[in-house]
Amino acid sequence: GESVGLHLPTLSVQEGDNSIINCAYSNSASDYFIWYKQESGKGPQFIIDIRSNMDKRQGQRVTVLLNKTVKHLSLQIAATQPGDSAVYFCAEILMNRDDKIIFGKGTRLHILP
Amino acid sequence: GAGVSQSPSNKVTEKGKDVELRCDPISGHTALYWYRQSLGQGLEFLIYFQGNSAPDKSGLPSDRFSAERTGGSVSTLTIQRTQQEDSAVYLCASSLFGGGTDTQYFGPGTRLTVL
Prior knowledge:
The structure holds two protein chains of two kinds.
Chain A: E1 10-14, E2 19-24, E3 32-38, E4 45-51, E5 56-58, E6 62-67, E7 72-77, E8 86-93, E9 101-103, E10 107-112
Parallel strand pairs in A: 1-10
Antiparallel strand pairs in A: 2-7, 3-4, 3-8, 5-6, 6-7, 8-9, 8-10
Chain B: E1 5-7, E2 10-13, E3 19-24, E4 31-37, E5 43-50, E6 53-56, E7 65-69, E8 75-79, E9 88-95, E10 105-106, E11 110-114
C-alpha cells in the first residue's frame, strides 16, 4: 500500500520525459532479474525480466540494462505517463539452486504534471 | 478468479491476539508464496507452497508464524500472540509451476496493524 513507499528514495520526473531507476543487486552469482512495479494499495506487478547472459532487454516503453561487472541493474521508462507513478523494485534470483527471490527495497517514481 | 485475492484487506488487532490472513491464488496455480513488506523495506520471503506442501519455510520469522494450504488452493497465514513488530503488509503471490523464473502474480495484500 501507500505507506510502504514512505522512506524510500524518490525520483521525480516531468511527464513525457524519460526516467532511469537504478538497483544494485547483492549476489554476483544471481542469474535472473526482474523489475516489479507496485502502485498504491496494490501488490507488485511484473514489468520485465532479464537473464544474466544478456545486458539489455526491451519491452514496451521499458528497457532493462544489466551490468554484471558492477552488479547493477537499471530500468529505463520512456515518455513517462502519470500511470507510471509507483514504487519500482528489482529482484534477483539464483536459478537451479533454491530459486529464492531476493527483492530490493525500491524507488518511488513520481511523475510531475 | 481473475487474480490473486487476499482477505481481509486491513486488520487491526491488539498485541497478544492471534490473526489469520487468507489468500486465494489464481485457479490452477500450483505454487503459492507469502511475503511481508514492512515500512520502507523490500519484500521479505516467508514461506513457499508447492501444492499443499511447504518445501521452504525458512523465511518464517518465529514459531508464532504458521501457514497451511488446503486442496492445492486457498492458503492461510496465522500469526499467534501478535507483536507490534508484526505490523506490515502481508502479500501473497501465486505462479503456475513454481521456480524462480515462473512469473509470480501478487494479491493486493493485507495490511496488519498491531496496537
